Amino acid sequence: MDRSARQKGASFHLFPPIEPFDRRMMDVGDGHQIYVEQCGARDGIPVIVLHGGPGGGTSPFMRRFFDPKIYRIVLFDQRGCGRSKPSGSVESNTTWDLVADIERIREAFEIERWIVFGGSWGATLSLIYAISHPDRAAALALRGVFLATKAELDWFYEGGVSAFWPDLWDEFVGLLPMEERGEVIKNYHGHIHSGSYGEEVKYARAWTVWENALAAISSNGRVGPTPSDYALSFAKLESHYFINGAFLECDDWIIKNADRIAHIPGVIVQGRFDMICPPSSAYRLSKAWPKSDLRLIGQAGHALSEAGIMSELLTVMEDFADMRTELAL
Fold it and tell me: Which residues contact 10 (CB under 8 A, 6 or more apart)?
């Protein structure tokens, strides 16, 4: 299909809804069980889908970016997320635990190499996984790049983006006592993990609404109510990861280790008006990663549901299917 035509109504050109041929709860130790599913072709090109957050989860919508006649689609809810148990748990829940879980899934499904598909935090985790296991990632499809740097966290949680969203920033930071507004992540984390259910829900909802409000370019900062259980799980996990610098040993760890993925082909799909993960991070990554292809999408923000983002990701996965022999899949 012509790309410009697809962008006019990209959601109508996603692949039809499908149901998994395999669903399971996988015991990964440390008291965690993760939900894992497989869809599409049993002998197809393997692709693993990494959701955002940290603290989000998978949805049936995510299955529809892949031709089910061509791809073997693997999705899972990361520790503490979605249908994984225990919900919202931060115990034994680090980036490195998630990387180990991805390898457990790969080994359980007897997959040698696969394409790694992830957006936002899912892009972060995709990169960290590929750097850690460069022989297992055949290609990367990334959306809305987040490099888990202090500069990016300062942009979104310590006032940078307030230059564009002063009204919503005032609502978000205004929930904190005046003396706590100089360290937003630290103090929101304290309230979200306070042990008082009412206090935790109040701050978790504000945290979640702040992020959701800035995700889609069309929302103008307004979103519907967030269920308290989802908000609490999401905010607990996200604040846990962010206050710990995503558990990376140094700032800018991904760029400093990008040489380990120099041989892996990848496409970066990035909205030019992404307020959560500004395009400067995607651009820096593209400069440090020789086999990457940066595709900046005009009139698009951060959300997976943006028409231009959806259209480009569909194209990326069509192109990767055509490269099956080249990718040795």
Answer: 307, 308, 310, 311, 314
Give me the phi and psi of 60, to 5 degrees please.
-55, -30
Verify whether residue 77 is a known catalytic residue.
Answer: no
* In a domain? residue 160: yes
What's the pTM value of the predicted model, to 2 decimals?
A: 0.95
Q: Is 133 a catalytic residue?
A: no
C-alpha dihedral sign at 318, 260, 90, 243: negative
- CA geometry: angle 213, 214, 218, nearest 5 deg: 85
Taking only the tens place, the pLDDT of each residue in 65-118 is 999 999 999 999 999 999 999 999 999 999 999 999 999 999 999 999 999 999
- Which one is catalytic: 120, 233, 239, 292? 120
- What's the CATH code of the domain at 15? 3.40.50.1820
Q: Which residue in 189, 274, 281, 311 is the catalytic one?
A: 274
pLDDT band with cut points at 50, 70 and 90 for residue 270: very high
Active site residue 84: no
Q: Where in the sequence is the domain holding 82, given as residue range(s)?
A: 3-148+249-322
Active-site residue, selected from the candidate residues 32, 189, 191, 302 = 302
User: Do residues 29 and 128 both lie within one domain?
Assistant: yes
For the stretch 282-327, pLDDT in tens is: 999 999 999 999 999 999 999 999 999 999 999 999 999 999 999 9
